[in-house]
Each structure stands twice: as C-alpha cells, then as structure tokens.
Amino acid sequence: RGHGQLSIRQTTDNFVIGRDIATTPGKVVFRNALFELLQYSPAGDTAYETPLLIFPPWINKFYILDLQPRNSFVKWATTRGYTVFIVSWVNPDPSLAEKSFEDYMRQGVFAALDAVEKATGQREVNTIGYCIAGTLLGATLAYIAGSGEYRNRIKSATFLAAQIDFSEAGELQYFIDDEQLKSLETQMRASGGVLEGSKMAMTFNMLRANDLIWSFVVNNYLMGKEPVPFDLLYWNSDTTRMPLNLHLFYLRECYRDNALAQARMILDGERLNVARVTTPCFFQAAKEDHIAPAISVYKGAKLMSGPVTYMLAGSGHIAGVINPPAASKYQHWTNDALPATLDEWLAGATEHPGSWWPTWDAWLAARSGDKIPAPKPGDGDLKVLGDAPGTYVLVKAGTMNKPSKKPDN
C-alpha cells in the first residue's frame, strides 16, 4: 500500500465529509486562492454582536473543530450564541509554492476580517488561532501593533495549543537544523514546491510511535484486525500539503531561530515585536501536549503586554482541545495570576473537573457585546457561494485541487 514507504492505516474509510463529519449547517460566503470562509447558521434567534472568526491550522483540515455533532466545537459555539466563521484553507498545489507567511497574513487573516465585516457589518471580530494558525495570529497582532494597519479590528485573540516562543518547543525541534532543512527543501522542490501531507503526518506519528505507529502494526498487520471507525484518526490521516516558501519560513524563523519571540521576524518590512500587543488574549495549553508543550505556550503568553489569561487543560494537542462538556472527561486548571514561571502558575492554580470550554465561554462572552438578531449567511453583502463544508476541504492527498468524494446530501 505504501509503495516502499510505511503506510499506517489508523481507521476505516467509512466517513464522508459533510455527511458523517463537518455537518454543522452553514454556507461558504467567501473564497480566494488560499481559503474558503464558512459562516455557520445561528442556533437561535439572537447572537452576540461581535462575530467569532476561527483560523485552524493549515497543516490539517478545519473539521477537527467540527467532527460529529457530539464533539463539534463549532456546533457548541453556535449554541452558546456566537456567530461563527471558520477558515477552510486550500490544499496547496505547486501553483502556490511561493506563497509566503506574509501572504497568509494578508490574503488569509486580513481577507477574512474584511469578509466577516461585509457579512455582518461588524468591524471588530473575536478570533481564534489553533496551533500554527495561532503563531500566524500572534505575528499578525504584532504587525498590526507596529504598523497601525487593521488597528481595532481584532477585539480579542484566543490561542489554542499555539506557540509564540519556540525556545522550548518540544521534540519537533529534533527535526529542525540546517542539514535537515536543506534536505526538506530538496524534497519539496522535487515535488513541485510542496511538501506532501504524508511526510508531515509521519513526523507527527513518530513523536508518539507507540500509539500512532506500532499499535497499528501489531493489531492490523501482525494480528489481522481491521481498524475501527474513529473520527479523530480519520481527520489525522486526511492530510494536506505545505507550500515551500511558507513552510520553510515557518521552520527557520520559528523553530530554528525563534525570531518572533526575539522581535527579529520581519513581515512586509515591519519588524515584529509581540510585546507591543495589547489585545486581550486567552491562551489554552494542554498538560500532555507534545507538539505545543504547555511551558512553550506559557512563555509565549508572557510576551504579550495586554490582559492575558492562561488556562491549562488535561490531555494533549488534540484531545485537550476537542473536549466537549457533555463528555465529562479530563480536567482543566485556572489561575488569574501570570507569575514568572509555569511551575509558579501551577502552584497557585485551581483544578476543575471536565471541559475547559465553559471557562473560555465565560471569558469570551464578556468581550462579545450585546445580543442582537442573529445574522444568517447571505444577510450581509456577501453572497452565498455554496453549502458548508465547502469544496476546498474535499481535496484529498494525491490529487491537485480536485475535490474528491462529495457528500450524498
């Protein structure tokens, strides 16, 4: 199956995007070369005045935040009274190989802010950045603070398992040095200027080899057992490609040089200084996160100058985020103070059973304005382009921007 490369089959292929997963009702209201913007239908007659705009990581597809109704963060957020928008990043082909970090700021973050304003009439937006998209969001906030462009457009920023300071970025640092980066660039150029998603997926799987490689070798290959249906592992195997310019910039500037934390990263001629950021920020970290370690997230939170809330969840990079209240799983810790070290923060923290989502909800609700008649997709100046989950999410590994199997609905 792997044609000479290790090919782990982690789950069944029974899921269909738009039928079994990514099913929260909504519409595509904007599209450009880098993303489709989904606006979700309101769950009630009223909603908070300030919209919520979510930037998921482009390393994977957006529907980690909209799996099945029972564990969909997006669906839950609509029931809490938020007008939810989410970016569905394109699965890049070689034509996008030279797209840069700056392009993802301008044609991604800024374009999405403008689209939300046209859809709702609201200039101020609450934002979420997950993982690498949180790094982009932090860099964007620093750019805005320095340049003044798009000032007063981002009302608050939530960072889900996202790093700003990469000085303690965990085991992924072992994959980042000049020799390996040069080898990676050679591979990407040989593939037309993109990194195939399977390469990135294998890197992440290697970080937890017992769980994500050897358990499947034993059960599937040695014992002949069929994988069981598991929405999260289906998402994990639904990989995306990385554009050469963007990906190498991220690895060099963040993992190798830690340039954003040290005020040495430059975007569009602006030297970024995160210490200038005064936007209210909420940092969610996970206790067992091996991709964005809790201490790394904490160090990034400490760089901001505005009001910052840090919260620690149980579990890891994915399950620590996707933990709906109804599941009654894990726990989370809170502490209103932000002392010098994570150990000091933990010493003064209070443990709470279950999901962190309601804690964040209380934080965001206070920054979301009054309740107004709930905006529906198509109400504003953006026409509906199609049904959620859109077309970009359907592009599978091994195809070049051609949607694969469409939902039956």
Topology pattern, helix = H, strand = E: EEEEHEHEHEHEHHHEHEEEHEEHEHEE
Instruction: Please count the beta strands (DSSP E, at least 2 residues each).
Output: 17
Report the mean per-residue pLDDT as an integer: 91
Number of helices: 11
Strand content: 15-25%
- Major sheet description: 11 strands, mixed
Strand order of the largest sheet: 15-14-13-12-7-6-4-5-2-1-17
Distance between the termini: 31 Å
Instruction: Please mark out the parts with pLDDT under 50 across 5 or more consecutive residues, or reply none.
Output: 404-409
Structural class: alpha/beta
Rg on CA atoms, Å: 20 Å
Give the helix level as a range of percent: 25-40%
Instruction: Identify the overall geometry.
Output: globular
Describe the overall structure.
With 409 residues, the protein is of the alpha/beta class. 30% of the residues lie in helices and 17% in strands. The protein contains 11 helices and 17 strands. The chain has helices spanning 73-79, 101-120, 132-147, 178-190, 197-207, 209-222, 231-237, 244-256, 294-301, 342-347, 357-365, and strands at residues 26-31, 35-40, 46-48, 52-55, 84-89, 125-130, 154-160, 194-195, 242-243, 266-267, 270-271, 281-286, 308-313, 331-334, 350-353, 371-373, 386-387. The strands form 4 sheets. The chain has an 11-stranded mixed sheet with strand order 15-14-13-12-7-6-4-5-2-1-17, with helices on both faces. A two-stranded antiparallel ribbon has the order 3-16. A hairpin with a 3-residue loop joins strand 1 (26-31) and strand 2. The longest helix has 20 residues, at 101-120. The radius of gyration is 20 Å and the shape is globular.
